[in-house]
Amino acid sequence: MVKLYEAGIVLLGKVQTHEFASGMTTNSQHFGPCLNPWNLDHVPGGSSGGSASAVAAGLAYMGTGSDTGGSIRIPAACCGIAGMKPTYGRVSRYGIIPMAWSLDHPGPLTRSVMDASLCLDAMSGDGRING
Q1: pTM of this prediction?
Q2: How far apart are CA 53 and CA 8, in angstroms?
Q3: Which of 89, 92, 91, 88 minimizes the C-alpha distance to 121?
Q4: What is the pLDDT of residues 99-130, one digit of tens each?
Q5: Which of 9, 17, 77, 105 has its CA 20 to 30 A from that of 69?
Q6: Is residue 101 part of a domain?
């Protein structure tokens, strides 16, 4: 997030995630289900589903997520947006509590591949790979 702030991002708010960023539904016992904006009977995908749902609904230009086993890519696919898991070390993991040090990757969720590319450029390279 440090690099995004330096690039001028405005934080709109925080969205729902699956507890401990581990699950396929993004349902919360405290806040209820996170809904897929294209079909309210479907889930937005797990873990980073709140970001994916907000971006797909047009509430935000981009969202961020963390991906260990598909937590960016699956919500992106479920919500019809672009999401990518960057290569290891491209984006700092500073501030992320890892499930697996070598598998956790923060990355962008956006409405287009071009937007994902721009966001990835802004997020890349702050030098704090291992936090």
Answers
A1: 0.87
A2: 23
A3: 91
A4: 777 788 899 999 999 999 999 999 997 555 44
A5: 9
A6: yes
Tokens representing residue 47 in the block: 């873990």
Supply the range of the domain harboring residue 30.
Answer: 2-123
- Report if residue 131 sits inside a domain: no
State whether residue 32 is helix, strand or coil: strand
Question: Does any domain span residue 128?
Answer: no
Question: What is the count of structural domains for the chain?
Answer: 1
Rounded CA gap, 95 and 52, in Å? 21
Question: If 0-12 CB within 10 Å is exposed, 13-18 middle and 19+ buried, where does residue 14 land?
Answer: exposed
Quick one: which of 95, 122, 100, 129 has its CA closest to 8?
122
Q: Tell me the per-residue pLDDT of 54-74, one tens digit each, with 9 for 90 and over.
A: 999 999 999 999 888 899 999
Residue 111 to residue 95: CA distance in whole angstroms:
25
- Counting beta carbons within 10 angstroms of the beta carbon of residue 94, is it exposed (0 to 12), middle (13 to 18) or buried (19 or more)? middle
Q: Is residue 45 part of a domain?
A: yes
> Could you identify the residue written with the tokens 């290891």?
88
Query: The tokens of 56 are what?
Result: 């797909």
